[in-house]
Amino acid sequence: MATTKVTSDLIGVDEVKTVNILDANVTTAKVADNAITLAKLAHGTDGNLITYDAAGAPAAVATGTAGQVLTSGGAGVAPTMQTPGLPAGFTSSEQTVTADTLLNVAHGLGAIPSLFTVSLKCTDAGGELGYAQNDEVLHNSHMTAAADNGITVAANATNVVIVQGDGISFHDLSTFNEAAITTSKWKWIVRAWA
User: Fold this and answer.
1) pLDDT at 1
2) For residue 47, what pLDDT is reported?
3) 191 near 91, Cβ under 8 Å?
4) Is the dihedral of CA 148, 149, 152, 158 positive or negative?
5) 159 pairs with which residues across the strands?
6) d(C-alpha 31, C-alpha 45), whole Å
7) What is the domain partition of the chain in residue ranges?
8) Distance between CA atoms of 186 and 111, rounded to whole angstroms?
């Protein structure tokens, strides 16, 4: 009887070389788990990341620049490298400091800010309390021992609100003691973020 088919008992150990196997015959099921090493991956660009495109094929996420972060584009969109930023924000013009006044500064964010700050900016060429012109001092709600001296800061969906008492004070840079400001030498700066 003539042999019509080669069986495994006719092939000696190590007699079939991988060069004799058609690529199409090496199926996924024939590749052992964790058998593909990094050395077997196609070379790419330093810093690139592997992802999958909309068709499910492997694709590269291009290398970003220093400081960028990987950002999802949502389902069906490859991630990209993006420069992180603050949410929508607002910075006011200089606002007049006046004792015993309620100051509403419209922020235009359409919601209560997730973060807001109030600073006093020195506008006097000679400075005051050790601060130079254009220096800013972060100033949040606080009251001093003197009756009605201080501010209260609040926010709503429309405004950042500053309630100003009889006087406003903070620490002098040279004496380190609390001292009252001359309101004509300072302006409020309000910043808010959605």
Assistant:
1) 58
2) 87
3) yes
4) positive
5) 106
6) 26
7) 18-82, 89-193
8) 28
Question: Tokens 């949410």 label which residue?
Answer: 87
Question: 184 φ, ψ to 5°?
Answer: -70, -10
Provide the pLDDT for residue 127.
97
Q: Give the whole-angstrom CA distance, residue 40 versus residue 24.
A: 18
What per-residue confidence (pLDDT) applies to 142? 79
Is pTM, for the whole model, over 0.70?
no
Asked whether the CA dihedral 77, 78, 83, 85 is positive or negative, the reply is positive
Q: What is the pLDDT of residue 54?
A: 83
CATH number for the domain formed by residue range(s) 89-193: 2.60.40.10
Radius of gyration of the chain (CA): 34
Give me 192's structure tokens: 């808010």
Distance CA 12, CA 14 (A): 6
**Three-state DSSP class for residue 128:** strand
- CB neighbourhood size of 109 (10 A): 20
Among 184, 166, 186, which residue's Cα sits nearest to residue 118? 186
Q: Which amino acid is at 123?
A: T
Residues in the chain with pLDDT values less than 50: none
Q: Tokens 């969906």 identify what position?
A: 157
Which SS3 state, helix, strand or coil, does residue 184 take? helix
